[in-house]
Design goal:
Layout lengths: L1 E7 L2 E6 L7 E7 L6 H14 L12 H17 L4 H10 L3 H4 L16 H5 L5 H27 L3 H4 L2 H14 L1 E2 L17 E2 L8 E2 L5 E7 L18 E7 L10 E2 L6 H7 L11 E4 L15 E4 L6 H17 L8 H22 L3 H4 L6 H51 L5
Parallel strand pairs: 6-9
Antiparallel strand pairs: 1-2, 3-8, 4-5, 7-8, 10-11
């Protein structure tokens, strides 16, 4: 038996109250209970019809806007439960309040869009700071668009469709949604171009444990057998998605899901937590000065720990510098080693600038910064420092290789001169 513990600074937890064997099914949800963009749109269209609106504006809504608006209308309709007409549609199509009440309240959410000003300040100098500002701007534009439409249905709803409500709903989606590819005969967490976010009540309650062995099973609601290879479920089928854990869980311990390999930047921005010494950490680099039309123009390179993936930006910088040399139409011939020395110095300078710009979190922390947020940011920044230091070492190794080439060229030149002096070469 599982028990859902209310949120604390680390979020909601699911604990088992008894020993659980390996390969155990811990949660299931029928396909028909999943909150999808289409089911959200259908409910909103019914609400629009009550206000003599054709709902055509909903066609322009994004998948996130549809689901977020659907969630928010649960809260707004609850405030109008004395209205018999609205209560009727709320009962029939806006019936996820019991699920929504199990989710963390706004003050318990910890993504950067929920940070206090002094907490967000600690991210300055990191890629995550800019990503947070970009996301905030994007979400506010969505909120304004959705709120404007809701106002056309009932003007009084505009003031109730608050930024806090939209941000809360959007955070539920970023931290809990699965790709729709999970609702298939061969469930997968890998998004496809045609997939969309879906919320799966109950199944989305488990926290993340990296490397935790889990799998997904699709089968009829009436039993627990695996579907045949030819099984193709549809929303009209009475089928369910189930989470299976493959490790033994002892009584009164937390039961985990595995969200897949994710860097701390993604975990913080979308979920509101980070991992200590996360091996999946990455940093995004862009090589400056790449001329438009050159291969790699505007490309962002994702580099991991131990300089994993560093050859990409290195080669891009080599190409860019080579193009700059060619554009100068210099008649002076630059030795390969000299060119590589210059590129290595430029690469190291780029990396060291980013390293210097990283915040010193412990020193910059001010009063009002929550302990769990400080720890989250420290883990992230430490990961960024580790990656940049490995990139700096990578640049040093490229420099040393170029020096070795220079020494070899000089040795060959000396040998050639000695051979000429001895008359062996004419």
């Amino acid at each position: 038996m599982l028990s859902l513990f209310p949120p604390d600074v680390s979020g909601t937890s699911v604990l088992t109250t008894e020993d659980m064997p390996s390969d155990c099914k811990v949660a299931s949800c029928p396909f028909t209970l999943a909150i999808t963009p289409q089911s959200s749109k259908d409910a909103l269209l019914a609400l629009a019809k009550m206000s003599n609106d054709n709902g055509h504006q909903l066609d322009a809504f994004t998948e996130r806007e549809l689901i977020c608006t659907y969630i928010i209308m649960h809260w707004i309709l609850e405030e109008e439960r004395d209205n018999a007409e609205l209560r009727s549609i709320a009962v029939s199509m806006f019936d996820y309040l019991p699920y929504l009440r199990t989710l963390p309240t706004a003050d318990a959410l910890r993504t950067p869009l929920h940070f206090r000003e002094e907490e967000l300040f600690l991210l300055r100098g990191t890629n995550l700071y800019g990503a947070t500002l970009d996301r905030q701007k994007e979400r506010r534009l969505e909120w304004e668009r959705c709120r404007t439409y809701v106002e056309t249905l009932r003007p009084v709803w505009k003031d109730r469709f608050t930024w806090e409500k939209y941000l809360t709903a959007a955070t539920y989606l970023s931290s809990r949604a699965f790709p729709s590819t999970i609702l298939s005969a061969t469930p997968s967490l890998i998004s496809a171009t045609s997939s969309h976010p879906v919320l799966i009540p109950g199944v989305d309650s488990f926290n993340h444990a990296r490397g935790h062995r889990v799998s997904w099973l699709v089968g009829p609601v009436r039993d627990y057998v695996s579907p045949p290879p030819t099984f193709t479920p549809t929303t009209s089928d009475a089928h369910q998605i189930s989470l299976i854990i493959h490790d033994v869980a002892t009584a009164y311990t937390e039961v985990f899901n595995n969200y897949g390999p994710k860097p701390n930047a993604e975990l913080i921005l979308g979920y509101g937590f980070s991992l200590q010494d996360n091996p999946d950490d990455t940093i995004v680099l862009k090589v400056g000065g790449v001329p438009e039309g050159i291969d790699g123009y505007g490309k962002a390179w994702e580099v991991g720990r131990d300089a994993r993936g560093s050859e990409g930006p290195w080669q891009q910088l080599m190409t860019t510098c080579s193009q700059m040399v060619d554009d100068q139409e210099q008649e002076i011939i630059i030795a390969d080693w000299q060119f590589e020395l210059d590129v290595a110095e430029a690469f190291k300078e780029m990396v060291d600038e980013k390293l210097t710009a990283l915040p010193r979190v412990a020193e910059a922390a001010q009063e009002g910064v929550r302990a769990e947020v400080l720890e989250m940011i420290q883990r992230y920044v430490e990961g960024q420092q580790d990656i940049l230091q490995s990139l700096s070492a990578f640049a040093d190794s490229k420099y040393e290789c170029a020096v070795a080439k220079a020494e070899q060229d000089e040795l060959e030149l000396v040998l050639d001169d000695e051979a000429a002096d001895s008359g062996l070469v004419s």
